[in-house]
Amino acid sequence: MLQIQAFVFNFASENTYILYNENKNAWLIDPGNMNNEETKLISDFITEKGLHIQKILLTHAHIDHVLGLQWAFDQFKIPVTMHQDDKEVLDMLQMSGMRFGLPVNPVNVDIEYIKEGEELELDGEKFKIYHVPGHSPGSIVYHNEDQKFMISGDVLFEGSIGRTDLYKGDYDLLINGIKTKLFILDDETQVFSGHGNPTSIGFEKQYNPFLK
Predict the structure, then answer these.
(1) pLDDT of residue 99
(2) For residue 16, what are the CA distances in angstroms to 58, 62, 154, 185, 211?
């Protein structure tokens, strides 16, 4: 059985996640830790649980989701898994930092690209990959069908959707992707978003004002 631990980090209250199992194998998703205090929180959790980080995953590469990416890569010495369409967003990290008044260095990490139709596996637990652009060009969702949950990044929130006024944002593309790829899933599927509280597919179908 997979466990999910969320950490709320940085200026954007971004959700960084660690997925782990009884074998103490784990994935680190969207490392947004931006200072020593936040990095210590996540490091201490990994150490106390005795976890072995096997993958670093990105839902997308906006600045608030990657502020701890260089630390994670240097710490765990494993490639970063992401969609190729967000590589240009990652390459704009320093420019994005200037917009927020943050001195951010470009990241220097090894990357493994993943695309829709592929699967990832953590000790037999399979995750389907959905490419749902619109918030960013390479936004992807990681879906575990057996335990009925997904890590959605900034695609879908409780009562909202990802903003589409950023670089290569596309409102119609995002709405279509949510309706055709996520809303066809079981209503009980939990949604762990990039910001805010968890929600479910059934709740968002019924109450999300953007998706009526």
Answers:
(1) 86
(2) 10, 13, 12, 24, 25
pLDDT band at 212 (very low <50, low <70, confident <90, very high): confident
Count helices and strands in the chain by DSSP H and E runs: 6, 14
* Cβ atoms of residues 97 and 63 within 8 Å: yes
DSSP letter for each residue of 66-90: TTTHHHHHHHH--PEEE-GGGHHHH
Give the integer Cα–Cα distance in Å for 71 and 103.
15
For residue 47 the two structure tokens come to 């150490």
**Phi and psi torsions of 50, nearest 5°:** 65, 35
Q: Which domains does the chain have, with CATH numbers?
A: 3-211 (3.60.15.10)
Residues 159-171: tens digit of each pLDDT: 999 999 999 999 9
User: Residue 11's closest CA among 75, 92, 89, 97?
Assistant: 97
